[in-house]
Amino acid sequence: MASSIIQPSPSKPASERSLQLALAAARTAAENKGSDLRVLDLRELTQIFDYFVIATGTSRRQLHAMSEDIDHVLEDDLHDKRTNIAGYDESRWIVLDYGTVVIHLFDEETRQFYSLEDLWADAKDVDLSTTLSSDTSA
User: In this structure, are residues 97 and 85 in contact, taking their beta carbons and an 8 Å threshold?
Assistant: First the structure.
């Protein structure tokens, strides 16, 4: 089943905060040359978290830079607290857990193998066109 595209417009304040964090993470991954960026809206599928942010990097160094910059933006600029990180040392799949938002940074081979987009195929895609286009036009 193909996922549908939604415009970012959650109705609850907590969801708005989650969306703000997810979009900031996606924007930061894009600024670090992350590719194949996706933000999946999981609010209708699970009560555990609201959004997945998924991005692909080409090297260990790039994945580290993405994860560190996302942490900087979400923790220092948006005053949120990461609850956990996994995979940083191996750098094939780094997971940053911000509670309602979970960020997955993959190398290409690992992303294809685990295919989170297929596992969560019923999730809606958040439209990133305005979020990412405003940052890349500078």
Answer: yes
Q: Angle between the 13-31 and 129-136 helix axes, to the nearest 10 degrees?
A: 40
CA–CA distance, 129 with 85 (Å, rounded to integer)? 28
> Could you tell me if 51 and 18 are in contact, meaning their C-beta atoms sit under 8 angstroms apart?
yes
- With respect to CATH, is domain 11-117 assigned 3.30.460.10? yes
pTM for the model:
0.85
Output DSSP code: residue 83. Answer: -
The token duo for 87 is 């995979």
Whether 63 and 94 have beta carbons less than 8 Å apart is answered as: yes
Supply the pLDDT for residue 137. Answer: 41
